Amino acid sequence: DVKVTQSSRYLVKRTGEKVFLECVQDMDHENMFWYRQDPGLGLRLIYFSYDVKMKEKGDIPEGYSVSREKKERFSLILESASTNQTSMYLCASSPARNNYGYTFGSGTRLTVV
Amino acid sequence: DAKTTQPPSMDCAEGRAANLPCNHSTISGNEYVYWYRQIHSQGPQYIIHGLKNNETNEMASLIITEDRKSSTLILPHATLRDTAVYYCIVRYGSQGNLIFGKGTKLSVKP
């Protein structure tokens, strides 16, 4: 079964900490994405990557950065976590040219205290 | 911004067909209509997509109006496990990013 795996299901971090959210896919997909999901706001795109070492800003990149050193891994970095970054974070991947959309991971629920 | 409009919530009786509407009046010729659903505490799951013609797979049917300004997702025999938030998304070709709106919360009741 093809998978997008997010390293943690639940995470609690302190304000000001540097936080790494990891995402790994085993489908040899070129494209990878990070979303956050908040009640009443739906899913919002943070960053995406179409290839190794490439990254593009999504709709809400402020306060985040990403790293794509290997094709299968896409990391989301919170340089200095803040309470307003408490959210559900979802990773997704897709082939470069794909009519079937994305495969999502199960999400990481991050709480910043 | 999402280019689709969906009702915030709907109810459906178990075993009956669930018909979920979506308006996408500004859709362009190269844009596909995608449907995803998200069951509580899980990531979104692909259901079906289409361009002009109606589509059917093992999960659902997608009916797109002739002018392509609206569509309906049909779950032919809804079960309790179909309770989820359903997202209708307009996407440019096979390369466009998925922009999620707020979706429709479907509650299937016994």
Summarize the structure.
The complex is a heterodimer of chains A (113) and B (110). Chain A has no helices and 11 strands.
What do these coordinates show?
The complex is a heterodimer of chains A (113) and B (110). Chain A has 113 residues and is an all-beta fold. Helices cover 0% and strands 52% of the residues of chain A. In chain A, strands 2, 4, 5, 6, 9, 10 and 11 form a seven-stranded mixed sheet that branches. In chain A, strand 5 and strand 6 form a beta hairpin. Chain A is globular and about 40 Å long. In chain A, 35% of the residues are buried. Chain B is mainly β and 110 residues long. The A-B interface holds A 4, 33, 35, 40-45, 48, 58, 90, 92, 96-107 and B 2, 32, 34, 36, 41-46, 49, 87, 91, 94-95, 97-103.
Short key terms for the protein model shown above:
heterodimer, A: 113 residues, mainly beta, seven-stranded mixed sheet, four-stranded antiparallel sheet, 11 strands, 0% helix, globular, B: 110 residues, five-stranded mixed sheet, 47% strand
List the helices and strands and how they pair.
The complex is a heterodimer of chains A (113) and B (110).
Chain A: E1 4-6, E2 10-13, E3 19-25, E4 31-38, E5 42-49, E6 56-57, E7 65-70, E8 73-78, E9 87-94, E10 103-104, E11 108-112
Parallel strand pairs in A: 2-11
Antiparallel strand pairs in A: 1-3, 3-8, 4-5, 4-9, 5-6, 7-8, 9-10, 9-11
Chain B: E1 9-13, E2 18-23, E3 31-38, E4 45-50, E5 55-56, E6 61-64, E7 70-75, E8 84-92, E9 104-109
Parallel strand pairs in B: 1-9
Antiparallel strand pairs in B: 2-7, 3-4, 3-8, 5-6, 6-7, 8-9
